[in-house]
Amino acid sequence: MPKDKTASHVRVMAAARDEFMEFGFEKASMRRVGERCGLTAAGLYRHCRDKEDLFDQLVAPAIERLRSWMDTHLTKYLTTVRDEGNLKWQDSWIDMMREVVYPHVEDYRLLLTCASGTKYKSFLHDLTQTAQEQTLQYLPILRQKGLSIREISPAALHLLFSAYVTALFEPVIHRYSLDEAMRCLETVEAFFLPGWKTLFGF
Predict the structure, then answer these.
(1) Same domain membership, residue 126 and residue 36
(2) Same domain flag for 144 and 193
(3) Which among 157, 155, 124 is positioned nearest to 139, based on CA atoms?
(4) With 0-12 CB in 10 A as exposed, 13-18 as middle and 19+ as buried, what is 100?
(5) Which residues contact 21 (CB under 8 A, 6 or more apart)?
(6) pLDDT in tens, 144-179
(7) Do 150 and 100 lie in a common domain?
(8) Domain range for residue 137?
(9) 120 and 191 share one domain
(10) CB of 87 within 8 A of CB of 142?
């Protein structure tokens, strides 16, 4: 990509972010995005297919970062269970918030507050569903290894994860600073952790 096009693309992305954050996806205007970054409609559409593609370019990397962390997190737990026969408490979603979400907090705020009308409109619900599905993968393995796992229905597990995930992302929605968010999330962890440990046989 030529240097001038790279610089132009950076301007387009910055303008699009400002437009979506101010108006949300549904009310955002491609015309205003062009005005914000000084491009004609033809120039703007060299950088995206349409408004949805523009939004996707902004948030897709954030989605991928979360998926990567969660996949690594799951693999680590499964490896520990299979190799050592127990489930040691390792990293938690608080680490995910610190290491993945808050360094790119504006991307996640965009997902949480501006995605109505896009395929990301149910972001937190989808994240909860993924967490539930991953957990259900290793519960049978834990039982095979002799851990005392309480019986819990998928519906009840969904309720727990929904409450947990919602609490974790509230500081993002409400624009807490990193320090304030971490203090609040430590409280969330102190509340949920004993329950998770009891449920999963620690």
Answers:
(1) no
(2) yes
(3) 157
(4) middle
(5) 106, 109, 110, 113, 114
(6) 777 777 788 889 889 999 999 999 999 999 999 999
(7) yes
(8) 59-199
(9) yes
(10) yes
